[in-house]
């Protein structure tokens, strides 16, 4: 069935801004140091942990694998405190403007808004952090027109499709008429499981991941991606991997 495109939806980290290695990882390490923990995530270790969606979930996985610094009764409190500190550091970094938008992001956001399409960001990151990225990097005018679904707004994180399903339901969208931009196989699986089309823009940590099932795989959005191509994806019967 041919469908007119209704929405362009972005992941945040690695898609809007390549934040993982020099943004989130550094913020986690600051938080660990502030809490006097003997924990430092190397570039390689953080890459391993990225196969788990969500910052709180990554910390739980890490401590499950390496040993917890506190008794079980204090674990929830520790994770919450670490995540608050990490988020504060991360937002300071974003507010500094040191991490630029990835190529093509602003162009595609403007094209979608000009065409009257819905634009949204769906991320497993903390909601305030995602809002900061959107407002600082895209500006207040654009941010006011972008719906954000992030953090603990759903109980199950990517690769579960819950956050994309919530976006479609909340915004009144036909999932098959939505095009998602992701950078990881976790995000790709979430988008496809929600019944949406998905373009993958490879990022620092995802270069070698398996993106079977993606509708397009590119280095960034300036590598041949425009609104006409996105519109054609929603009008095709099946997704084709390129």
Walkthrough of the structure:
The protein has 242 residues and is α/β, with parallel strands linked by helices. It has helices at residues 20-34, 43-49, 55-66, 75-95, 105-114, 127-138, 140-143, 162-171, 185-193, 227-234; strands spanning 7-10, 118-123, 146-150, 178-182, 197-201, 216-218. Strands 3-2-1-4-5-6 form a 6-stranded parallel β-sheet, sandwiched between helices. Helix 9 (185-193) links the parallel strand 4 and strand 5 (197-201). The mean pLDDT is 93.
Output the keywords.
alpha/beta, Rossmann fold, DNA polymerase, domain 1, six-stranded parallel beta sheet, 6 strands
List the SSEs and their pairings:
Elements: E1 7-10, H1 20-34, H2 43-49, H3 55-66, H4 75-95, H5 105-114, E2 118-123, H6 127-138, H7 140-143, E3 146-150, H8 162-171, E4 178-182, H9 185-193, E5 197-201, E6 216-218, H10 227-234
Parallel strand pairs: 1-2, 1-4, 2-3, 4-5, 5-6
Helix content: 40-55%
* Number of separate structural domains: 2
CATH fold-level topology of the largest domain:
Rossmann fold
Order of helices and strands: EHHHHHEHHEHEHEEH
Helical segment count: 10
Quote the beta fraction: 5-15%
Mean pLDDT: 93
CATH architecture identity of the largest domain = 3-Layer(aba) Sandwich
């Amino acid at each position: 069935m041919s469908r007119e495109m209704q929405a362009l939806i972005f992941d945040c980290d690695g898609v809007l801004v390549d934040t993982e290695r020099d943004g989130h990882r550094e913020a986690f390490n600051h938080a660990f140091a502030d809490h006097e923990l003997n924990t430092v995530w190397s570039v390689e270790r953080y890459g391993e942990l990225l196969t788990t969606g969500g910052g709180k979930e990554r910390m739980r996985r890490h401590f499950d694998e390496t040993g917890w610094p506190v008794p079980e009764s204090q674990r929830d409190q520790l994770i919450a405190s670490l995540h608050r500190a990490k988020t504060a550091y991360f937002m300071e970094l974003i507010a500094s403007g040191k991490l630029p938008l990835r190529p093509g992001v602003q162009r595609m956001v403007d094209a979608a808004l000009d065409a009257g399409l819905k634009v949204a960001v769906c991320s497993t990151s903390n909601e305030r952090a995602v809002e900061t990225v959107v407002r600082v990097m895209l500006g207040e005018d654009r941010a006011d027109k972008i719906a954000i679904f992030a953090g603990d707004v759903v109980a199950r994180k990517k690769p579960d499709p819950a956050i994309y399903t919530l976006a479609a339901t909340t915004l009144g969208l036909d999932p098959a008429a939505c095009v998602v931009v992701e950078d990881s196989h976790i995000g790709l699986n979430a988008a496809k499981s929600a019944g949406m089309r998905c373009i993958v823009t490879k990022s620092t940590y995802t270069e070698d991941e398996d993106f079977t099932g993606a509708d397009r795989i590119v280095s960034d959005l300036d590598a041949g991606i425009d609104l006409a191509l996105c519109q054609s994806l929603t009008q095709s019967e099946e997704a084709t991997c390129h």
